[in-house]
Amino acid sequence: MAKIGIIGAGSWGCALAWLLHNNGNQVTVWSIMEDEVSMLKNCHEHKDKLPGVILPKEMEFTTDLESVAADKDVLVLAVPSPFTRSTAGKMAPLIKEGQKIVNVAKGIEDSTLMTLSEIIEQEIPQADVVVLSGPSHAEEVGKGIPTTIVVGAKRKDTAEYMQGLFMSQVFRVYTSSDVLGIELGAALKNVVALAAGMADGLGYGDNTKAALITRGIAEIARLGISMGGRIETFYGLTGIGDLIVTCASMHSRNRKAGILIGKGATMEEAMNQVKMVVEGVYSAKAGYALAQKYQVNVPIIEQVNKILFEGMPAAQAVSELMLRDKKVENIDLRQLYQNSVEIPW
Ligand SMILES: NC(=O)C1=CN([C@@H]2O[C@H](COP(=O)(O)OP(=O)(O)OC[C@H]3O[C@@H](n4cnc5c(N)ncnc54)[C@H](O)[C@@H]3O)[C@@H](O)[C@H]2O)C=CC1
Ligand SMILES: O=C(CO)COP(=O)(O)O
């Protein structure tokens, strides 16, 4: 049995708390919000964000960061990406040398273009940081629906320890050493999922969805490989796998926001209606800035930026995508693949 602190009590934090408790661990959940902690203490259920998933009576909930960070074998950082830096900064003085921290959020910081594990390592240099990502909606994980996911770590022993901690009959965990590739896939798939939702909102069909998924992963892989990620990661669970689920699922907040925008809502209206975090809105800017930095062509991400931040109608963005220069399929990806990086473990 491990002692685990979950930092962040939204839908994903609560679903992972449920899973890790069922795996035989002692779990304490922290939230910055007093009312959220009161609700969890009183109801043992997150009524707003994960209704129907009953958390056990012995699970503890707190707003005291010091008590959740102390004496834990593992800390799971589950706050949305805009709060990763501030939360890690508050945690830093409480964290012992070598503390294992698992980041489960998906995003890129737009002001620095850093991934979330890079931010955590910068704020808490004494920590041993890993990432957990893949096609895994909290609503399904919280019901014990079979799910597969990947833990990414620099050290093989840490990856294998986490694999053992999270793995269950209904939650199959793979390991990978490609932390960067995992994090880029996780953040950028949300931008493409916004586009997929917009296509749904515009009333387009399955052909359009398949095109966005396939061309979307080509775009993510092109950028990710240029930055040092590995091609097999982008065509694995944390790349194409998570992109498929987010573009297709009725649970996806990014897809839901996209549908609203496709129907004519502004970005702010869509975010307000969805209520939970819409990470793609934050990662869209960062993804486009990274593409410019690495001189990579990302037409879908570019059009999503125009829709979100320049008020371009979604239908016009689709026309611009359809009428781009004529191309050979994936010729640049093939060239990048030949230069793919070595695998450390
Ligand atoms: N919900 C899902 O199915 C999955 C979510 N994720 C990722 O996990 C991360 C968290 O997402 P969710 O739990 O779904 O979000 P959510 O919208 O359900 O919950 C957000 C939670 O963040 C916390 N919070 C709010 N303001 C804060 C602040 N200023 N500082 C610190 N914490 C604050 C609160 O506990 C709040 O309930 C996101 O990056 C998301 O992409 C990853 C896989 C699955
Ligand atoms: O990352 C997710 C599933 O793997 C959750 O996606 P949404 O944030 O779009 O709901």
Automatic annotation (TrEMBL):
Cellular localisation: Cytoplasm
The EC number(s) this enzyme carries: 1.1.1.94
Binding locations of NAD(+): 8-13, 83, 138, 253
Pfam families documented for this protein: NAD_Gly3P_dh_C, NAD_Gly3P_dh_N
Residues annotated to bind sn-glycerol 3-phosphate: 106, 134, 136, 189, 242, 252-254
Glycerol-3-phosphate dehydrogenase NAD-dependent N-terminal domain: residues covered: 3-158
UniProt-listed PROSITE patterns: NAD_G3PDH
GO process annotations (BP): carbohydrate metabolic process; glycerol-3-phosphate biosynthetic process; glycerol-3-phosphate catabolic process; glycerophospholipid metabolic process; phospholipid biosynthetic process
Protein name, per record: Glycerol-3-phosphate dehydrogenase [NAD(P)+]
